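Retro notes (design track)

What went well: tokenization of the new backbones is finally stable.
What didn't: we kept losing track of which sequence belonged to which structure.
Fix going forward: every design gets posted as structure first, then sequence, in one message. First example under the new rule, 354 residues:
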């Protein structure tokens, strides 16, 4: 968005007039020119973007880039034969950097005499949303990566986020579902159909990929998007009201690190954890650090951005993750997959951003 430029009015004096007349008329002409220019400027006022909005847009772009790096790292940690325990361990350990940063931020607030949490009646719904986000979002998304890959999981998840966020935001935040938003949701549903077909075709040409596993991966990608979309509404509600960002970070990361990691030990042998290579630990650290950066950036951005606008900015994840999946992990993109990704991006651009 750019400010409008108003034209200026140049007054040209008649060269046939004598010097005395020019001396008398010049102030009148200058005053008239200034009056006309002021009138012209008033009809086309400059519209500047608030600094807070610019900062929120920058934070949104930073979040999209950070989440893309985190998703690529999580794709590198996916194991088709790792089992539920491994996926739960990865989803839990990646929350540790965010958990650590949240504790530091809360300690700083306490040292300054600031409140750390809101009233319990306001905290417990956010805590429930955090639990749902970790189990239904992060864990389900990690399993879908091992089933259908990154290039298809991310756009399916994103399409589901848009649909669920628009519907839940309508009832929780009172956001209006405009005609443009309805068209966008229709595109998202169509993109899920194309991407699901692409995943099934991929399973047909890869004998090592079981069809039930593909269906499970698609369903989990859709479900993770539902979880992210619903909890995103509650995150926005929290950070724009009484809940400090540090407290929100703490609740969401604690639900992952303090719950998923212990539960993963029910399925993942201790020997498997001891056998994790230094390269895998480094990849887990990269996923965790960039996930923390993305989460911190997006929670601050949501103070000044609507959910629809934040999701439009995050649309770059679809392209970045698709390129990374092809170049780094050798995933193939069929015509159905490209159409599905294109519909996802088109739907995000069509989405009402007011």
């Amino acid at each position: 968005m750019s400010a409008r430029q108003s034209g200026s009015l140049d007054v040209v004096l008649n060269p046939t007039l004598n010097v005395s007349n020019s001396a008398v008329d010049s102030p009148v002409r200058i005053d008239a020119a200034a009056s006309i220019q002021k009138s012209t400027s008033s009809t086309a006022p400059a519209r500047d973007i608030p600094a807070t909005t610019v900062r929120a847009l920058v934070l949104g772009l930073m979040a999209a880039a950070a989440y893309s790096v985190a998703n690529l790292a999580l794709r590198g940690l996916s194991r088709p034969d790792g089992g539920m325990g491994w996926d739960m361990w990865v989803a839990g350990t990646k929350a540790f950097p965010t958990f650590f940063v949240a504790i530091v931020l809360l300690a700083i607030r306490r040292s300054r005499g600031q409140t750390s949490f809101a009233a319990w009646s306001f905290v417990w719904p956010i805590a429930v949303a955090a639990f749902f986000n970790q189990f239904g979002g992060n864990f389900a998304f990690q399993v879908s990566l091992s089933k259908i890959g990154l290039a298809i999981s991310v756009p399916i998840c994103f399409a589901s986020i848009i649909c669920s966020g628009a519907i839940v935001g309508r009832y929780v935040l009172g956001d209006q579902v405009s005609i443009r938003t309805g068209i966008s949701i229709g595109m998202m549903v169509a993109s899920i159909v194309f991407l699901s077909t692409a995943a099934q075709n991929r399973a047909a040409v890869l004998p090592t990929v079981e069809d039930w596993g593909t269906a499970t991966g698609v369903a989990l990608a859709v479900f993770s998007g539902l979880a992210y979309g619903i909890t995103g509404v509650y995150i926005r509600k929290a950070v724009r009201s009484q809940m400090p960002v540090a407290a929100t970070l703490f609740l969401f990361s604690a639900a992952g690190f303090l719950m998923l990691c212990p539960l993963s030990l029910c399925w993942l042998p201790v020997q498997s954890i001891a056998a994790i290579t230094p390269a895998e630990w480094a990849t887990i650290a990269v996923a965790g650090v960039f996930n923390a950066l993305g989460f911190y950036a997006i929670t601050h951005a949501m103070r000044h951005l609507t959910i629809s606008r934040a999701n439009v900015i995050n649309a770059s994840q679809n392209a970045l993750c698709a390129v990374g999946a092809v170049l780094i992990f050798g995933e193939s993109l069929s015509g159905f997959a490209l159409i599905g990704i294109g519909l996802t991006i088109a739907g995000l651009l069509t989405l009402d951003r007011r």
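Added context from the reviewer: Residues 1-48 form one domain.
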